[in-house]
């Protein structure tokens, strides 16, 4: 008869992701940088870059061959087409 704590669906999903550990490392680094340096006016542009690059690389590797990758490509193509069309119509 005890109360069960409902699991957060995002934490469940991210823990099954092949990039979950890298995501956690990046978020921890970013949160530490933000709370300890950025809000105090001290920041370094190189902070957390290594963590971000590892996480981004993992995402890219794990999106290959999936529909999401193709959707991102199509979205990029549409943006380029719209920009070209707007340049032509302004002439």
From TrEMBL:
<dbReference type="InterPro" id="IPR007918">
    <property type="entry name" value="MDM35_apoptosis"/>
</dbReference>
<dbReference type="Pfam" id="PF05254">
    <property type="entry name" value="UPF0203"/>
</dbReference>
<dbReference type="GO" id="GO:0005829">
    <property type="term" value="C:cytosol"/>
</dbReference>
<dbReference type="GO" id="GO:0005634">
    <property type="term" value="C:nucleus"/>
</dbReference>
<dbReference type="GO" id="GO:1990050">
    <property type="term" value="F:phosphatidic acid transfer activity"/>
</dbReference>
<keyword id="KW-1015">Disulfide bond</keyword>
<dbReference type="GO" id="GO:0045332">
    <property type="term" value="P:phospholipid translocation"/>
</dbReference>
<comment type="similarity">
    <text>Belongs to the TRIAP1/MDM35 family.</text>
</comment>
<dbReference type="GO" id="GO:0005758">
    <property type="term" value="C:mitochondrial intermembrane space"/>
</dbReference>
<protein>
    <recommendedName>
        <fullName>GCK domain-containing protein</fullName>
    </recommendedName>
</protein>
